[in-house]
Each structure stands twice: as structure tokens, then as C-alpha cells.
Design a protein that fits this description.
about 20% strand; about 220 residues; TIM Barrel; 9 helices; 8-stranded parallel sheet; alpha/beta; 8 strands; about 40% helix; globular; single chain
């Protein structure tokens, strides 16, 4: 299917899922995940009014020169401390803050370049050891951290694809945590489960394969 058809299909599904629970679909941001997608194809998506893109790797973002694109750039992959400097230069939002050390270093690098940035704390809502993210009891420390240039605006999670029957439960758990700490944004839901995520309160969904097809 052409890119335009895929995008139309995803947007229709977002609208239908939102309307099912009386939400305004316009409050949901669609982040096009551009991992392994060429700059030329990304530009094609931008021409089709994709306003947000998400990258998983700093080196790939540099190689493709995504900084040249006039869109909101989200970093959604695991962030290593030695890549923070480049991450804060290139991106507008970081979704994957999974340690206090990382949060403090992001803030420090932002201060150096006099830049403000929204960040998400990545939660491990399933408790799986193989998943990145912090456990719910650790979140309070992040909220209490005094930050100058980084601002925690919400929570992010990757839920296990091996437990589809628990997906909704995990999304609900993330929403409950966000409400507990008065955080407005929820980054959850991918190609496999974004409709459930929308129904459970996602404000940002991360869709790659559903837009660009299977990755090579």
C-alpha cells in the first residue's frame, strides 16, 4: 500500500478508537517511527503532514541528518549516557528516561546549550527483567528531582507483545501512575496495540510498521 493510504488508515483507526471512548482524536499525536527508514521516505511522510517522527538510535539519526527536517523529533530508543550530548542537540523530546543518572545528565547538557526540553520517564509496567524502564515505586524520586531545563511531562512504556491479553491492564496501570503524579502525557501504543492505547488514554502513539510497512 502507498504511504498515503497507510497514513489514512492509521488516522481513521485512531479516530474510531477515540470516538469509542468519547475522546477527541485531535488530542492524540501520531509519532511516525522512522527506524531503518530513508530520509527520502521520511520526507515523503512529512509532505503528507506527518508532524512528529521518532528515532531509536542516535547514530542513525546523525547519519540520516534528521536534524534537517522541519518536524518535531522524538527520541524513543534506549539512551546511553555517552550519547546524551548529541540527543539533546538533535531531538525535541526524549521518551526513554530510565534512570536518575540519565535525567540529571540530560538536564546538565541542556543547561550547557541553553535549551529547554520535555522528557518522559520510561516505566516498566510489566515487571519483566528484559524491559527497560523503572518500577512504579521509583517514580517519586524522579518527580522530586529539581530540574532546570528538562521537564518531566509524562510517562512512556513498551508493553510485552507476548502477553496481548494483558496489554490493556498495563496501559491502565501507566495512566493511573500518570494521574497520581499529575502528569498529562502518556506515550504508549505501537502498530500492534495503538487502538487499545488510545482507548486507555494515550496522548502520543508510536507507529512505524503500520505507516512504512515491514522494515528491511
Amino acid at each position: 500500500m502507498p504511504l498515503s493510504d497507510n497514513l489514512d488508515s492509521i488516522k481513521k483507526k485512531i479516530k474510531a478508537a477515540a470516538e469509542k471512548v468519547n475522546r477527541d482524536y485531535k488530542e492524540i499525536r501520531l509519532i511516525a517511527v522512522t527506524k531503518n527508514i530513508s530520509l527520502e521516505t521520511i520526507k515523503g511522510a512529512v509532505n503528507l503532514r506527518v508532524n512528529d517522527i521518532g528515532e531509536n538510535k542516535i547514530q542513525e539519526a546523525i547519519k540520516k541528518n534528521i536534524a534537517s527536517l522541519n518536524v518535531k523529533k522524538h527520541f524513543i530508543g534506549h539512551l546511553q549516557t555517552n550519547k546524551i550530548k548529541k540527543a539533546v542537540e538533535i531531538f525535541d523530546v526524549i521518551h526513554s528516561v530510565d534512570s536518575l543518572k540519565l535525567l540529571k545528565k540530560i538536564d546538565k547538557e541542556l543547561i550547557k546549550i541553553n535549551k529547554k526540553m520535555d522528557v518522559f520517564v520510561e516505566m516498566n509496567v510489566s515487571g519483566e527483567k528484559s524491559k527497560y524502564g523503572i518500577l512504579p515505586y521509583e517514580l517519586k524520586k524522579f518527580i522530586k528531582e529539581k530540574l532546570r531545563n528538562a521537564k518531566i511531562i509524562g510517562l512512556m512504556a513498551m508493553v510485552p507483545l507476548t502477553e496481548p491479553e494483558k496489554t490493556r491492564t498495563y496501559f491502565r496501570k501507566l495512566k493511573e501512575l500518570a494521574e497520581k503524579y499529575s502528569l498529562k502525557e502518556l506515550s504508549m501504543g505501537t502498530t500492534n496495540d495503538f487502538e487499545v492505547a488510545v482507548q486507555e488514554g494515550a496522548t502520543m502513539i508510536r507507529v512505524g510498521r503500520g505507516i512504512f510497512g515491514e522494515r528491511k
